Amino acid sequence: MNLPNSLTILRIFFVPLLVAALVQEKILFSIGGYTVTKEWVALAIFLTAAATDSLDGYLARRWRQVTTIGTLLDPIADKLLVSAALISLVQVRVLPGWMAILIVGREFAVSGLRSIAAAEGYTIKASDLGKTKMFSQVAAISCMLLSVRHAAMRLPGMILMWGVVFFAMLSAISYFRKFWRKVDESIKKRRRRELLQLERKSQRAQLRRQRGSGESVGKSVGGAAGLGTSGGRILKPPEVS
Fold first, then answer.
1. Which positions ≥6 away from 42 have C-beta within 8 Å?
2. d(Cα 15, Cα 117) in Å, to the nearest integer?
3. What percent of the chain shows pLDDT beyond 90?
4. Between residues 94 and 177, which one has the greater pLDDT?
5. pTM metric for this prediction
6. pLDDT for residue 190 is more than 80
7. Can you tell me the distance from the alpha carbon of 228 to that of 61, in angstroms, rounded to the nearest whole number?
8. DSSP H or E run through 31
9. pLDDT category, 110, cuts 50, 70, 90?
10. Residue 26 has pLDDT above 90, yes or no
11. pLDDT in tens, 56-97
12. From the centroid of its chain, how far is CA 39?
């Protein structure tokens, strides 16, 4: 287990901590007269987890430690973190539910497209729109976390969330176009080849049946003709004297 993969797994473990901190109803604790509320703890957890997203990718590329498990876990960890934050914000009634549904649904749809593409031997890489969407998500969720107690952050947070929805839908369209261009056409060509192969096999089987029936007819005709012969000589009836 290398360091980039450890950071990815750590980001997954941050998810329940984020949810637990955000749904608390009471002030957590005080330090030196300063009150630490739940939104600040949740914001610290979220930003720390988001920082590991950039750090693990950078270290994996720099140290040449890109692994299969890291490639698979990294997008899963990102989606878990963002989904948990959005659902928790809906729970504390600072984010409309339809926004969370659109963004989380987009994540599931893109993951499904990537899985189908991977099964067909294609890799759909993250687009620039997807990276912009991730940055806008971090900024928007951070503002919405602060708006739990500070109402002044509600308006900028909602403006940023609208930007997240826009970039999420735009990047989803981009992923779908890549999928349609690369995977869907290849699947159609493969199915055409399979249908042609099945048709050729059916034709060959039909020819074999026709040949088999012709040979059986020939044998039956030859057997009927040989009933009046003996050793290849035609038997004549005896002469009557």
1. 18, 21, 22, 88, 145
2. 28
3. 25
4. 94
5. 0.71
6. no
7. 90
8. strand 29-31
9. confident
10. no
11. 878 888 888 878 777 778 888 888 999 999 999 999 889 999
12. 32
Three-state DSSP class for residue 37: coil
Written as six digits, the tokens of 5 are: 């993969």
Q: Is the CB of residue 139 less than 8 Å from the CB of residue 160?
A: yes
Phi, psi of 5 (to 5 degrees): -70, -35
Number of neighbouring beta carbons within 10 Å of residue 186: 14
* pLDDT digit string, tens, across residues 115-144: 777 777 776 666 666 667 788 899 999 999
Map out the domains of the chain with their CATH numbers.
Answer: 3-192 (1.20.120.1760)
Cα angle 107-109-174, degrees, rounded to a multiple of 5: 85
**Strand blocks (E) in 140-202:** none
In the numeric block, which tokens belong to residue 85? 């934050």
Q: Which helix (H) or strand (E) holds 29?
A: strand 29-31
Sequence-distant contacts of 90-99: CB under 8 A, at least 24 apart = 91/22, 91/23, 92/22, 92/23, 92/148, 94/144, 94/147, 94/148, 94/154, 94/157, 95/144, 95/161, 99/161, 99/164, 99/165
